[in-house]
Amino acid sequence: MIMFTWLLYRTVRFSSSSVAVRGKKIKVLIADTFAKQMVGLMYRESLKGDEGMLFVFGRDSKWGIWMANMKFSIDIVWIGKDLRIVGIKKDAAPCVSIFNCQSYVPAADSRYVLELPAGSASRRKLAKGDKVTYQAR
Predict the structure, then answer these.
(1) Where are the beta strands (DSSP E) in the chain?
(2) Percentage of the chain modeled with pLDDT above 70
């Protein structure tokens, strides 16, 4: 599994865009295919304070996030099809091992998931119901 995800990490290419929440822009990598979503932020050293990753799903669901092969904690923001925040998990920790890996699941359905550096949700004062601006390319 590790070798497979490492090879994916080395070969997938993410497009970039931006989102805005509470008037503040965030540069995001777009994870809009299964391969990109599977790799996510694996193997990366960090994200800058104004960076993130936006997972774009084709349907609404309670999209669970797990953090195998991650090197840093993140804030996870679930966003509904109406582009309003429906859930936030602050300071989600990376997996200890593949056998000890928590999955973070929201209480409500979402269409998008925004991953940010840990502490970003608090610094930006993000809350359920906040509107997210995103233009698909």
Answers:
(1) 15-21, 24-31, 51-61, 65-66, 74-79, 85-92, 103-104, 110-117, 132-134
(2) 91
